[in-house]
């Protein structure tokens, strides 16, 4: 399983993050903005996106509007993978992604092409950011990941 590499038994060493150290903050942000756009496009097509530490998906929900009227809506969710939850003892709301939802991995080629970066750079940047994220979870640090 790919996510095993995000289960850290010991603290991260700086040499495990060579790409993040070479890129500027704005380059890292461009990579993630492009990844966010890719995820967004997949969600619009009712596909879930697997990102190594969990899955982004759209799930059915209900919104109450006006006088007790209930509208069926869809809301985007992120479901951390269960090994990650167990390993880091995370408390998360239970989210059931509908079984019929097709799932796709991140398409590094597309994400890179959109911002004119090399595919390897994008793949390593995303991998190292997720490692860094796992390192923060391991050390019980607060982490904020924002997606447009």
Automatic annotation (TrEMBL):
Domain of life according to the entry: Eukaryota
Residues in CCDC81 HU domain copies: 14-91, 104-148
A family per Pfam: HU-CCDC81_euk_1
InterPro entries according to UniProt: CCD81, CCDC81_HU_dom_2, HU-CCDC81
GO cellular component entries: microtubule organizing center
Protein name: CCD81 protein
